[in-house]
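Changelog-adjacent note: as of this version, every example in the card shows the full chain rather than a window. The one below runs 129 residues end to end.
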Amino acid sequence: MVLAKQHTLSRRERQIMDVLYRLGRATAAEIHQKLPDPPGYSAVRAMLRVLEEKGHIRHEEKDLRYVFLPVITREKARRSAVRHLVDTFFDGSPQQAVATLLDMPGARLSDEEFDRLTALIDKARKEGR
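Full-length structure tokens:
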């Protein structure tokens, strides 16, 4: 399956996807209940249909209700969104993106976080990425 374009989601669609990733699977009513400042229930149902048409979610029937679940893993969606961000705002340069993140005000990392980043950089270097 081709990865759906994560960057084509509206704010509300992203919120719905966040709920589904947190819950794993949910009915329209459960999603509606978990949304911040939710729109009407019928609007949520309409957005679920759109997300399904876009290939982000699918549904299963259970006890005469639709249960919705993500088609792609959160990690794949995250990678797609970050790839789009890097391509769009950093000319495809992961180095520029990381430098920007580290230069952000308030971006304080713990020693453990620096160690983890160092290990990831070392691993990428050894693998020739």
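Structural remarks: DSSP finds six helices and two strands in the chain.
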